[in-house]
Structures
1.
Amino acid sequence: MEREREQYQNQIKDLLQAVEALLKSNRAMEERVAQLEQMAEAYEDLKTKHAKLKGELAMRKRGQHGKKSEKPKEASDSDSDGSKDEDEDKYIEDGSKNDVPPTDDDLEEEEGNAAPAETQEKKPRDLSNRPGAKGYG
């Protein structure tokens, strides 16, 4: 009977040691989970900051270069959103019908405006600051 009691006590001691080891590992896991949660929060903050900075960069680029949809259409742009080939085909079919031959009055106006343009002298450009000028390279 005494022997059985010692065995029973030894089993209890072994079980207590196992429970203590499990408690230690459980506490270590809790600490690790807390660290991971902090890292996840920091990651989300960085993701938010990244998205914000990306948006600011896009706004600055738009401010510098403009967005295609924000630029005003020039008069030479076609009204349709078709391809270049489609625009050519449309001009061949419809555009030539809209062409009006110039009248004599139009030709006289052009000749009258051409003479002053020829008399204007162009100023030479200052090329001293351009790459390849003397002093560079």
Note: The chain has a mean pLDDT of 78.
2.
Amino acid sequence: MELTPENEETLQKAESDAKLFETLADIQRAQENAEKNLKQNAEQWWSSLDEPTKLLAFYCVTKRMHKGDIVEKRSYRGVLYDTFDFGLESYTVGIVSGYLDIHNAIAYGQLCDELRDQENESNKSE
């Protein structure tokens, strides 16, 4: 095959794409390792706590979740950044820990309650 400017450009693009995919794979592996380390460190930390300290940690976290999710009805980021006063690094930690699922379930339940209340109010006025 003759090397033309078009072929050379295609070859360079393919090499560039291959480097990009390799970099993305490296990032994915790093993310997976970080999540694995986080889970291991968190379990080791939790296991090292005595019962009163575990209860205090539970209280502190659930109190803030209640305030941010139930009382203030904040967004996921709003709870993390404003209620807990965390930075950007908390976004992924909340996903890995399952908090995003909890937050969404609470928000969905609140929305369903609001819609049901609106429907009941509209039925009363008919």
Note: The chain has five helices and no strands.
